[in-house]
Amino acid sequence: MLAVLPLFAQTPTQPNRLELDLDFYKTEAELIATPDSSLLLFTRTDRTWTNPPVFQFTRYNHQLQAMWTEQVMLHPISKYMAHYTALPHTYIAFSGKDKHEFQFVKLNLQTGAVQKHEFRIEAIDSVYVFKVVDDNYFLVSRSGKDNTPTLLHLNEKTGEIKPLPSVYGSESAFSDILVQEPESQVSVVLSESNGRVSRLQTKLFDAGGKLLNNYFMHPKAGQRPLVAEITPGDTTERLLLGTYANRDLRYATGFFAAPVTSDGSDARYYSFTELKNFFKYMKPRREARARKREANRLKAGKEPGLQYRVLLHDVYPATNGYILTGEVYVTENNGSLYRMYTISGGSAQIPKLYRRTQAIALGFDQDGVLLWDNSFPLKDVESNQLRPTVEIVASPDGKVVIAHPDEDAEIHYQYMNQDAYTEEETSFELLPQNPDAKITSTNLSGIISWYGLNFAAYGWHRIKSPGSESRMVFYINKVSF
Is 232 exposed, middle or buried (CB count within 10 Å of its CB: 0-12, 13-18, 19+)? Predict the structure, then answer.
């Protein structure tokens, strides 16, 4: 076992590491975690001009032992787009020979059996997220005509493609999409806005794409729903957990919880100032001043001044409720106007830089009552696209770990036990397979949530072992809490 010197009680270990002698200049790699505690490594290896690249999948178990390897024939210019797992299969979407051609690879995780389906979909030019129910695909896509978000239904067996009924405003987006496997149904949450008024709409479809029900969460004065994640479970028990705005729909002023089937009249709202740890990214004196200033504003009848942009992550089931996670960010260096759509975002003027201030976690009971909140201040975490920059794992008893890599061989992390906040900055270095070897450089480092309180860190290391020349390897480290 690779050990890590203890920093505090919940110090991670690195029980397994894999080092693959791949060609850094000819190989593209994508690592996918699956619900059965295994990993799928997809590699594209370029060859000569006259020979097409090799596309290959390898499945590794929870100890990073290879279970099978299979090659698949794809168009030479194919690019990975998205994936979804419904055991025993993992589905992977790839681009095709042009922007309207899409390839879907279906892998049996147990046997390695591969199926590939190609579809030409003139209505779209990109797939952001997709789910599969009984070999029916629900595609959150971008319209090739006007770049607006669109939802399509694709029948794998017949090849039939049809748009699903939805209503979009000029600044609307898909907020979440969730599969209820026992019922073979799909719930889609839409954030609808015309720039002045917003509402949430939840649509329930059967596997064939038939609309079964429509639920609307309407705004109230000072409480306008922005985006939301949907909790798993029965339709009558599911909740929407999300953010709301006071007036300016660009910024959130708090979080809410509401039954999916309600109109929002019985929603529970929690402003940022009601949260215990939301402002811990500030110094104590600054936090005290901010809270006092906000209290005076509200007492004077003014709208909230503490408003933030929030990128929501997934909802995790807990013992008696749910855990909502996300990232808080600010924007800098505003650029030209263009549209971007994500599963948790909207259509807006996109700045050149997103700077994170903190990652957050909130615990709710099954009725949407807030039980606890916690945060992890983030320093020097920036991106040019609005995508998650940290990875999060959670356990049913309320333990949450948030982690992200830096440009070196370090992983920064925060271990949360419900609302017990810690100011200690924690990080560790990834360790090579040979204890006597030294990691001399790191490239394209990443980390993904795996299973339980486990992560998979990956990337490229140049390693120098005693008595031998340095070599470049693609690595995967299991990180366990």
Answer: middle
Residue range(s) defining the domain that contains residue 369:
282-333+351-428
In three state form, how does the secondary structure of 223-241 look? Answer: EEEEEEEECCCCCCCCEEE
Band of pLDDT at residue 350, cut at 50, 70 and 90? low
**Residues in the chain, total:** 481
CA distance 259 to 112: 40
- The region that residue 233 occupies, defined by phi over 0 for left and psi between -120 and 50 for alpha, beta otherwise, is left
Sheet holding 89-95, edge to edge: 80-86, 89-95, 101-108, 114-120
Q: How far apart, in whole angstroms, are the C-alpha atoms of residue 65 and residue 75?
A: 29
The residues, any chain, with a CB within 8 Å of residue 48's CB and separated by 6 or more, are none
Spatial contact of 58 and 106, defined as CB atoms under 8 Å apart? no
Under 8 Å between Cβ of 329 and 381? no
For residue 296, being part of any structural domain is answered with yes
Kindly state whether residue 325 falls inside one of the protein's structural domains: yes
Could you tell me if residue 123 is left (phi over 0), alpha (psi between -120 and 50 degrees) or otherwise beta? alpha
Asked whether residue 409 is assigned to any structural domain, the reply reads: yes
State yes or no: pLDDT of 8 exceeds 70.
no
Give the count of beta carbons closer than 10 Å to the beta carbon of residue 323.
Answer: 27
Contacts of 190 (CB under 8 A, 6+ apart): 166, 167, 168, 172, 173, 174, 175, 200, 201, 202, 203
Q: What's the one-letter identity of residue 351?
A: P
Number of domains in the chain: 1
| Structural contact between residues 456 and 61, judged by C-beta atoms closer than 8 angstroms | no
Separation of alpha carbons 74 and 42, rounded Å: 12
At residue 36, what are phi and psi to the nearest 5 degrees? -90, 20
Note if the pTM is more than 0.70.
yes
pLDDT on residue 264? 86
Say how far apart CA 273 and CA 292 lie, in whole Å. Answer: 10
Q: Which residues are within 8 A (CB) of 329 and not within 5 positions of it... i.e. 6 or more apart?
A: 308, 309, 310, 311, 354, 355, 356, 357, 386
* Distance, CA of 390 to CA of 387 (rounded, Å): 9
Residue that the structure tokens 């949260």 belong to = 275
Would you say residue 237 lies in a domain?
A: no
Query: Residue 2's closest CA among 442, 439, 396?
Result: 439
Query: What is the spatial distance between Cα 289 and Cα 279, in angstroms, rounded to a whole number?
Result: 11
Here the tokens at position 190 are 């839409």
pLDDT tens figures, 441-454: 999 999 999 999 99
